[in-house]
Amino acid sequence: MAKANLALLGGFRLQMDTGESIPLVTKKTTALLAYLALHEGEAQARPKLAALLWGDHIEAQARDSLRQALSLLRKALSYACPGGLIAHEDTIGLAPATLTIDARTFEDLIRKSGVENLERAIEVYRGEFLEGFQVAAPEFESWAATERQRFRQLALDGMAKLLDHHLSAGALEHGIHIATRLLAADPLQERVHCTLMKLYAQQGRRGAALRQYRTCVELLSRELGIEPDAQTKILHRDLLREWNRPQLNTSVVRSAVPQGPASVSSDGSLPADVLDKSISSSMHAIAAPGNLPAETTSFLGRDRDIAKAGGILSSARLVTLTGPGGIGKTRLALRLAAQMHRDYADGTWLVELAAFDDPNAIGHAIADVFGITQQAGKTIEQSVARSLSRRSLLLILDNCEHLIDAIAALARQILSACPHVSLLATSRETLMIEGERTYPLAPLECGGGVEAPAVELFVERARCAEPRFELSGDAETVCEICRRLDGIPLAIELAAARTRAMSPAQIRDRLHERFHLLTNGSRRVLKRHQTLRHAVEWSYDLLSSSEQALLSRASVFSGGFGLEAAECVCSGGDIAIPDVLLILDSLVRKSLLGTRRVGNAVRYSQLETIRQFAEERLAVLGEREAVRDRHAQFFAQAAETHHRVWRSPQQLMAYAWLDQEIDNLRGAFRWASSQDNIDVAARIASRIPGMAVLRVRSEPLNWPTEIVDAVRHADHRRLGAVLTYAAIRTWNLGHVQEATRYAEEAIALIGNANFDPPVWAFAVLAMIASRQGNAESAVRFARAGAEHPADQRERQCLATLPFYLAMAGAHEEAMAIADDILEKVAATRTPSSLVAALFSQGRAFSKANPVRALDTLEKALAHARTSGNRYWEIVIIPAVAELQVRNGDPGKTLRSLPQMLEIWGQSNEIGLATLTTATLILLFERLGHPAAAATLSGALSQMIPSSSFFQELPDTVARIRRVLGDPSFEQAKRHGAGMTHREVVDYATNQVRHALNVMGASTAAS
């Protein structure tokens, strides 16, 4: 019998049968074992294996590498399965039954007949073959990809058969579980989306059914560019018709629905005879052993949690549901216990521990539930364990965090003495004992509009407080309330209760005072769940002084933080830097901080409700100013560091950091400027906007204009950069003269050793001049910038020179210098400069050699995408599409345009707007949509006074006028001139989609 287990599905894991991991030293050793395992019992030729994993080596090196890998593999397997590796002179193989291999087990089960085998097979299929595993061996990767698809298809076929079985048996819950797994594996199965919608509807969960429809629509649109079919839309319409009707509480009827075969009428209701039968099963459930309280309100939005936590509980005897106060741990535990009561002959039982503050009383609390008396010569804990030792039951230990050590000790004793007793604990931190499995409960989903679980909960609870409550025009407001309350069920329920006397808008506008607003919860619940403040305060009061201090200090972060930031900002006083990690770990365990993996690091976060409470306590501690100063200083230094990264080949890393830390940077800048800390504010405002522009983030461009006077007064070294970005910002607002003054003032600082040279100000002046119709000045400014020594590092000004020459009509000169400029720019290894140089070269050749121009622009687009330069991606996509249309093949580029236009809609950067709009005019004219092109020419006329900055544009507009005629052209132009930026984006997006539909129709007709 195999002593080791090899998991290939859902990732690679090699373990002893005791659970101990067996490490493999190299990735290629891992790959070799995976290949041999899937060909267990088959001899594999050595040259074949060498080519599979070392195909890029010469033959002798490949053979030597194979020998080394075999040696490592034999050593790793030596204890668990000695002799399992069979090596001959020409072949290598894995002996049969050497390892228990999940992939082989899955294949065996999936090919057998019977529902039980199918269910076991799907349990074994934990994920895709070698999920997340990659190795630098193209032949192996190709083989693995083929196997991955094969296993995936086997799993999909198996799950489809299981789903059909559950549907025919009327097993709604099982059907929902399998349908959810099917969609997780293949989200584009519209039939399964419809099935899941119907299953939800049959359970009376129309919100979940509507939410599933929205998911289906988004996936089909994003991935396939299509809409749901007619039947799906009809089903959605019928569900939507019922959404706003006030509902009777149907939880009792739902809980009574039998899970066996049952026919369901066309409207989703159960026939009368089935309801009659359900009465007896409901009575039987009530008569089963246990003391679970009856549900008085519906249980919403936790289907996945029920499935996942239930799966854990079915294979573990101690499961702890963790999460912050008010997240819904007790409700989930009660629902889990109710659904699993048939698995326990002696029932499911609740022990409420929140009211106990004496650790010695825990045993008595459990004893009282079962009527156990203390036996002579034994402690109450021993008496409880002895009494339960022969029973088969599930015991809920509710609210453990305040007596964690005593409860952990008793849980350990029960698990040891009672082999058929399982424990389900709810706690804000884990019990930390052997065999414990934890399930962290997340907030309710808030995305997805009115169909989101959080919104569904708000509506249902609001109708309990005010039966006439309707969403009507308040849908967006309620969605915002739920988002701002972090999806915490307690907070949402307390807010919904306020609809008795307040409108949703009034509730939303008072959420900054949430601890005063969200009070007066149900009298049936514990005091600490009657107000939001009590719920959070309960957790805070259980912390040590160091934990309280660090949690309070962490409130200065926005959008999360890393370990280094926490060590710099939150240490001090009694908290040494090495202690920060230990305290963070403790706060995570106590559900007051959340974590997520970002690359190779962990990022911490607070729910906004907890952060606001901690922020109050920081002020009480008298540390607010000092901690905020440290926060601002840290992010000013981080801005300096990542600005250097941005000016290097690792530009994408800088953009990822910017996306991650934008909230913290905003907070740091705001605090520094409010405290007149000009140095910190100037360092942030001079380093972040450049990155932000190319990442299509508009907000940081506001910061330089806010402090430019103070920076000028202080003669700060970064004055030139602040002036440059202030020029861009004021130009975006249409203040051309002010923008020009800022840029000229920046250039005047060049040569002054007291200031950093603001060479990019030349690029700003070139951009302004070109859009004002002064092409010669634009070229002059671009040349001046390119010739300045400060441009030697990134060559950003040099990169754009061919573009401005081409726009001025100097195509011959632009083409003549483009190759040499591209070579010089490429030598800097700065992605954004390289993309700009490629774009310039493409525009230089677009008239004389459109084939070469298209090839160059496609290269520019590829570089923009891989380096994270969204600005250039948005500019280049319509230019590529226009050249593709000119060549008779718009290709996939046109299909990606709507997505990039949506990103453009988030920016008010005028340079981006003018370039994109001008290129769209050319594109629509080429596509044969002159009305759209004329409309956009009107929009462009409101951005800049002259369209001659794009040399082709005047002739293109003249052709459009001739095609449409003067009256129609002027009408379309007036329409475009009256559009806002958002309306221009939406209009262009709709026109692109219309063009795609026309192209699709013509293709189908041909």
What descriptors fit this protein?
single chain, 1006 residues, mainly alpha, 47 helices, 13 strands, 62% helix, globular, disordered C terminus
Structure description:
This protein is mostly helical. 62% of the residues lie in helices and 6% in strands. It is built from 47 helices and 13 strands. The strands form four sheets. A five-stranded parallel sheet has the order 8-9-10-7-11, with helices on both faces. A three-stranded mixed sheet has the order 2-1-6. A three-stranded antiparallel sheet has the order 3-5-4. Strand 9 (393-398), helix 17 and strand 10 (421-427) form a beta-alpha-beta unit. Helix 31 (702-713) crosses helix 32 (719-732), helix 38 (831-845) runs antiparallel to helix 39 (850-867) and helix 44 packs across helix 46. 45% of the residues are buried. The model is unreliable at 244-288, 521-530 and 1002-1006 (pLDDT under 50).
Write a short abstract of this structure.
With 1006 residues, the protein is mainly α.
Q: What is the topological layout?
A:
Blueprint: E1 4-7, E2 13-16, H1 27-38, E3 44-45, H2 46-54, H3 59-77, E4 85-87, E5 91-94, E6 100-101, H4 102-111, H5 115-124, H6 138-169, H7 172-185, H8 190-202, H9 206-224, H10 230-243, H11 251-256, H12 272-287, H13 303-313, E7 318-322, H14 329-339, E8 348-352, H15 362-370, H16 380-388, E9 393-398, H17 404-417, E10 421-427, E11 436-440, H18 453-465, H19 475-484, H20 489-497, H21 504-509, H22 514-517, H23 532-541, H24 545-553, H25 563-570, H26 577-589, E12 594-598, E13 601-605, H27 608-621, H28 624-646, H29 651-674, H30 678-694, H31 702-713, H32 719-732, H33 736-748, H34 760-771, H35 775-787, H36 796-807, H37 811-828, H38 831-845, H39 850-867, H40 870-886, H41 891-895, H42 897-904, H43 910-927, H44 930-943, H45 952-964, H46 966-977, H47 981-1005
Parallel strand pairs: 1-6, 7-10, 7-11, 8-9, 9-10
Antiparallel strand pairs: 1-2, 3-5, 4-5, 12-13
Helix pairs in contact: 1-3, 2-3, 4-5, 5-6, 6-7, 7-8, 8-9, 9-10, 15-16, 16-17, 18-20, 24-26, 24-27, 25-26, 25-28, 28-29, 28-30, 29-30, 30-31, 30-32, 31-32, 32-33, 32-34, 33-34, 34-35, 34-36, 35-36, 36-37, 36-38, 37-38, 38-39, 39-40, 40-42, 40-43, 42-47, 43-44, 43-45, 44-45, 44-46, 45-46
